[in-house]
Amino acid sequence: MSLTANGTDVIEPARFRQVLGHYPTGVVVVTALDPAGTAIGMTVGSFTSVSLDPPLVAFLPDKGSSSWRALRESGERFCVNVLSAAQEDVCRAVAMRKTDKFHDIGWHPSPAGNPVIDGAVAWIDCVTEQLHDAGDHHIVVGRVQNLQVTEGEPPLLFHQGAYGTFTPH
Q1: Cβ atoms of 138 and 67 closer than 8 Å
Q2: 32, 48, 79, 129 — which has fewest CB within 10 A?
Q3: What is the pTM (predicted TM-score) of this model?
């Protein structure tokens, strides 16, 4: 391990990812409509609640992501879809770099018109409240406009490079 100019250890990206991979995360797909009315989205593992009053959530997209660029260009509205354990295929399809990610994925519009993925455990309609610079990522804080639990299925989780689920005792 090497040291920085101020004497702290240099954290290699592979080591950082390996250690933080021990913390399980939920899997969501953030969706919107592009100017032509086509569903767009990106798979996100870094999503969290932020505040109850006002109701705020956040997700952390990679600045270099073309999917994130498309979502930003679509406007201020977006929907967070909490995927079910049965939707690993949806997760992978949206995560792939391709133009029509939603070709084989069923969805319906939220009250704000954003895509709600059929079979998602829950959805959260938001308007961008703040955008923060955070290294090679952004922190997108969204003000919740509407939300709904839609399925009784357990959520899809990501842990140590693999997908799985959690069922409470």
Answers
A1: no
A2: 48
A3: 0.90
DSSP H helix total and E strand total for the chain:
3, 12
Q: Are strands 28-33 and 56-59 parallel, antiparallel or unpaired?
A: unpaired
CA distance 143 to 50: 10
Give mean pLDDT, residues 51-69.
96
H-helix segments, 51-111? 66-74, 88-95
Asked whether 127 and 74 are in contact (CB, 8 A), the reply is: no
Q: Which residues are bridge partners to 91 per DSSP? A: none
Tokens of residue 159, six digits: 């842990």
| Residues 154, 77: Cα–Cα separation, whole Å | 27
User: Which pairs from 73-77 meet CB under 8 Å and 24+ separation?
Assistant: 73/34, 73/35, 74/32, 74/33, 74/34, 74/35, 74/40, 75/32, 76/127, 76/128, 77/32, 77/112, 77/113, 77/114, 77/125, 77/126, 77/127, 77/128
Look at 23 and 155; give whichever has higher pLDDT.
Answer: 155
Q: For residue 59, what pLDDT band results from cuts at 50, 70 and 90?
A: very high
Q: How far apart are CA 119 and CA 48, in angstroms?
A: 21
